[in-house]
Amino acid sequence: MIEIKSFEFNDFHENTYVVWDETLQCMIVDPGCYTEKEKNELKNFILGKQLTPVLLVNTHCHIDHILGNNFVSEQWNLALHLHKDELKTYEETGRWADFFGIVTKEMPKELVFIDDTQKLNFGNSSFDILFTPGHSIASLSFYNPNQNFILAGDVLFSRSIGRTDLPSGNHQLLLDIISTKLFTLPDDCIVYSGHGPATNIGDEKKFNPFLN
């Protein structure tokens, strides 16, 4: 049985997810922890639950989703899993950090490139990888069919969609990806987004103003 804990981190109110199962192995998705308080909150939760982090994963590499990558990588000796084309997004981090007055660290030294021909596995759990660009050049989403939920990054939000005015954003592509990749999932599929509350596919089909 998979359990999920979300944290709202940094000034962009980004959702970081810790996902674990009965083995107590876990993956950390989009660690946005920036301040020492936020880093300690994440660390203390994992220690308190006696979890063993085995995967560090980015849905995409906009600055708000990668601020804690280095901390998590060093704390638990983890490689960073991401799509190889998101390295282009990572290269923009310095420019955005200067713009917002944020101090960033280099990306983790050990990288593992993943794509939609593979699966993410930890403990007794497995996730399908969906290629979902549009908000970012090579954003990925992670779907667990057994419990019917998806970690969608900034592709789809409750009553909204990811912005497409950043470098490599493509509005029509994002709409097409949502329609062909996410909206083919069951209506009761829970969507855990990169910002804001969880939603479900059925509600977004009916009520999302960007998709109706």
> How many discrete structural domains?
1
**Strand share of the residues?**
25-35%
Number of strands: 14
For this structure, what is the CATH homologous superfamily?
A: Ribonuclease Z/Hydroxyacylglutathione hydrolase-like
| Helix/strand structural class | alpha/beta
CATH class annotation: Alpha Beta
CATH fold node name: Metallo-beta-lactamase, Chain A
Largest sheet: 6 strands, mixed
Shape: globular
Name some characteristics of this structure.
single chain, six-stranded mixed β-sheet, 14 strands, Metallo-beta-lactamase, Chain A, 29% strand, alpha/beta, 212 residues, globular, 7 helices
Describe this structure as you would to a colleague.
With 212 residues, the protein is of the alpha/beta class. The protein has one domain (3-207): Ribonuclease Z/Hydroxyacylglutathione hydrolase-like (Metallo-beta-lactamase, Chain A), CATH 3.60.15.10. Helices cover 27% and strands 29% of the residues. It is built from seven helices and 14 strands. It has helices spanning 36-48, 63-66, 69-76, 87-91, 93-100, 171-182, 201-207, and strands at residues 3-9, 14-20, 25-29, 52-57, 80-82, 111-113, 119-122, 125-131, 140-144, 149-153, 156-157, 160-161, 190-193, 199-200. A hairpin with a 4-residue loop joins strand 1 (3-9) and strand 2 (14-20). The longest helix is centred in the first third of the chain and has 13 residues, at 36-48. The radius of gyration is 16 Å and the shape is globular. It starts with a strand and ends in a 5-residue tail after the last helix.
Short overview:
This protein is α/β, with parallel strands linked by helices. Helix content is 27%, strand content 29%. The radius of gyration is 16 Å and the shape is globular.
